[in-house]
Amino acid sequence: MSTATQKTESPAPPPAEGSPSVGTLLLQGLRSNMRQYGMLVALALIIVIFQIWSDDILLRPGNVTSLVQQNGYILILAIGMMIVIIAGHIDLSVGSLVAFVGAAAGAMMIKHDMPWGLAVVLCLLLGAVAGAWQGFWIAYIGIPSFIVTLAGMLAFRGGTQILLDGQSLSPFPDGFEKLSTGFIPEMGPYTQYHNPTMVIGLIVCAAAVWQEWRGRQQRAAYELDVAPIGLFFVKCAAIVAAVMAFTMTLSSWHGAPYGLLILAGLFVIFSFVMRNTVIGRHVYALGGNQPAAKLSGVRDKRVTFMVFVNMGILAALAGLVFAARLGSATPSAGLNFELEAIAAAFIGGASASGGVGTVLGAIIGGLVLGVLNNGMSLVGIGTDYQQVIKGLVLLAAVGFDVWNKRKVGS
């Protein structure tokens, strides 16, 4: 028998010992993604449940738009709170700072007829100063963030009462109110959908798929584990389908509100900062292990200070968005907003010990709370029971995170 024949008839070599099969890789990929996106799956289930329970009202275009506008300021706070918690701290003052900035905006625009654009800039600077004040005591003096921000919560609430003298101020200028209640103007030929919103949705889809592909290539270049290609395509298809469904829902109403654009811009900026910049990596390092981070050269005091300055700016922005939606500055604004933001961060995957969490997780956690609030209101569940349900959801989310970590560590 010839050598060629022997090579043809010889059996194929067995797979290397210990190398996983395609099915095993797929199962591992599914488990990994379920751990990473568990709350996203939970959000989808909550949406489906309330869509059926509310007789298809939840996902009507008008209600979806209202859902975005009603929760925009909480999502803004959740982004900042997630970063604070990742750094190993907490901020109890953001609700009171929201009220204080809203009161300052009312005093500037309504009492003193200041142009609303200038007032917005000054209010953001006011938030930065408030955050710097708290960050100084926490980072450079060493007082625990719980105590400093608790003092800030009391001080800012008192400052709100002083600025407003116990009275509400209204109305705000129309241009300012459009920050929360306005929509992108229509452009282009008439269609059944809002053209600019559809274009934005397509751009978001392309950017999301490109980011997923880029992340996969980077992991492969560093010889890290990547999901099976089939699961990757399923994931990309799910992202595109979700984004386009949301886009078409908004486009069939009045289009994307300005508040959504503000939130999307913050999401892009802070996702990039936390994943791709030195300061973002330092925040994770500081929250994960402060002594080791300091030994590695992380300037812990400066990082902590900047985290609270950032939280102050975002709280000021949330205060402006809330005041614009409400149309007035009120002494009771921002009540329990800090608890909503903290709950959104923990539901979205933050760890109480710090060092863990993502900006996307903060958005998902905020949406879980927002959909719960909206859905329970649509089906007639009282506010007393709503508080109980949200408390149980928060406990379940944190409990699931703890169980997950123990399972992975075992």
UniProtKB/TrEMBL annotation:
GO cellular component terms, A-Z: plasma membrane
Region (Disordered): 1-20
GO molecular function: transmembrane transporter activity
Annotated Pfam families: BPD_transp_2 (PF02653)
Residues spanning the membrane: 37-53, 73-102, 114-131, 137-156, 226-250, 256-274, 303-324, 344-372
Keyword Transport: yes
UniProt KW Transcription regulation keyword: no
Keywords: Cell inner membrane, Cell membrane, Membrane, Sugar transport, Transmembrane, Transmembrane helix, Transport
Membrane topology: Multi-pass membrane protein
Record localization: Cell membrane
CDD domains xref list: TM_PBP1_transp_AraH_like (cd06579)
Source species, domain of life: Bacteria
Chain segments annotated as coiled-coil in the UniProt record: none
Role summary: Part of the binding-protein-dependent transport system for D-xylose. Probably responsible for the translocation of the substrate across the membrane.
Protein name as catalogued: Xylose transport system permease protein XylH
Organism the protein comes from: Streptomyces iranensis
